[in-house]
Design goal:
Strand 7 and strand 8 (about 215) form a beta hairpin. It is built from 12 helices and 11 strands. It has about 290 residues and is of the alpha+beta class. The protein folds into 3 domains: about 1-75 and about 155-185, Arc Repressor Mutant, subunit A (Orthogonal Bundle), CATH 1.10.10; about 95-150; about 185-285. The strands form 4 sheets. Strands 1-3-2 form a 3-stranded antiparallel beta sheet. It has a 3-stranded antiparallel beta sheet with strand order 4-5-6, with helices on one face. Helix content is about 50%, strand content about 15%. The chain is flat. It starts with a helix and ends in a 9-residue tail after the last strand.
Length: about 290
């Protein structure tokens, strides 16, 4: 086994261990919480890896479609944030933000959120639609929520990983342990790169955009990846649904998408008002 594959194998062993441990204590957690693995410096050290080695291995695994999102925290930024929170400037900033809690600011924030939603749902992010729909958004409260999340981080926490839905990292680890070279492993299965609008099936990339703008099928596929338990999605319930489009527009878009790529017939079934998702029909989704 090459040195690179050894590093990747150790990284996978750590991720598999964390994932299995998470599943044992996942009662009451959302799908995203179950798939989110928090990484401490000590865990990386115990795996006989350096942070750069671990980071490089994560990105290699992500390129094969096994990780939905990877974040490594900047230690310098964390130190600066802690200094800011404990400084007199913090209360001054909060007071200033409260002055910006006006209807005009709220309307601009909501419009910006709606614009972003129509483009793409960010990796690893579940959009709180109620926040967008409510009458008044306070920028000071949004700031406080972000600071609260930062404070909840453990002191030794240096990153987090969100596993890709419908993929199994333990299968990838088994292949490497059976002396398959990482770069030569056939990447069977399907996954979705939402940021770049590309759906993959058995390593074949299928774009879901035109000239950088998402097609209608993007919103359908993204809905299933943002809620892996869904077996069917009504078009009008999708995040990013365009009320100026008819239900038939989404149905026809999905049908054309499947006609161009017949291998998708076993995964998606479009109807007039909804599309079904058959992840269980795909017999080898490693």
């Amino acid at each position: 086994m090459s040195l690179q594959d050894q590093k990747i194998a150790k990284t996978l062993e750590l991720l598999v261990m964390l994932s299995r441990s998470k599943q044992q204590f996942s009662h009451g957690q959302s799908d995203e919480e179950k798939a989110t693995l928090r990484i401490s410096r000590q865990l990386i050290t115990d795996s006989q890896l350096s942070v750069p080695e671990f980071t490089n291995a994560l990105h290699a695994i992500a390129e094969k479609g096994y990780l939905w999102h990877v974040v490594i925290f900047d230690e310098n930024l964390r130190s600066q944030m802690n200094e800011f929170i404990n400084s007199p400037q913090y209360s001054e900033v909060v007071d200033r933000l409260k002055e910006l809690d006006t209807k005009d600011t709220s309307d601009k924030l909501k419009q910006s959120a709606v614009t972003d939603l129509k483009k793409i749902i960010p990796h690893g992010t579940q959009v709180n639609q109620e926040l967008v729909d409510q009458d008044f958004i306070k920028i000071s409260e949004a700031f406080s929520v972000g600071i609260g999340s930062f404070k909840q981080m453990r002191p030794d926490e240096i990153g987090l990983v969100i596993l890709m839905p419908f993929r199994d990292i333990s299968v990838l680890l088994d292949k490497i342990n059976n002396d398959e070279k990482f770069d030569e492993i056939r990447n069977d299965g399907f996954w979705y790169d939402q940021q770049n609008f590309i759906f993959y099936i058995d390593e074949s990339p299928i774009p879901t955009s035109y000239r950088g703008n998402p097609n209608l099928e993007h919103y359908i596929i993204a809905s299933f990846y943002n809620n892996p338990k869904l077996k069917s999605i009504d078009y009008e319930e999708m995040v990013g649904f365009d009320p100026s489009k008819t239900n038939e527009s989404y149905q026809h878009a999905m049908r054309r998408f499947i006609e161009k790529h017949p291998s998708l017939e076993r995964i998606f079934t479009p109807h007039k008002y909804s599309t079904e998702f058959h992840s269980d029909r795909y017999n080898h989704t490693p």
